[in-house]
Amino acid sequence: MSGADEVPDYYQLLGIIRTANADQIRSAFHRFAREHHPDNFVGSLEDTEQHTELYQHGSEAYRVLLDPTKRKLYDEGLSRGLVRYSEDRAKEKRRTMRPPGGVVLRSSKARVFFTRAHGAIKSEDWAQAKLNLKMAIQNEPDNDELKAKLEEVLERMKSR
Which of 118, 126, 121 is nearest to 154 (CA)? Predict the structure, then answer.
């Protein structure tokens, strides 16, 4: 199991079909674990290492196939010939959303606070807008657009 071309895809590894549901995946993994758990091969160092690596791949398959988001990304990669899941793909697929007000946000928490701030800005409740923008910035401290919005609100508060 040392070369990438020797590693079967997750479905083959667990012995399931691509449309398997969560219960079928769990059942297949438990069957796989009983057969390949490294504790079953304590006699030979070579067998232990080989089954440890195989078991790690099986555990990875189990985690990825049970998570709907990871499974979707994995299936997309599999259609292009990638048999392993990569966290890098998940990061690259992460969407950025532009809530009302046109600020790009990555964090769902920042998005909630910014949406509240935007509503407060529309109703000219500057204190509430300031508070929510500060909360959004705490969730995305590197977001310059949020900081600029906060500066706009602070300027409005000074002019009042």
Answer: 126
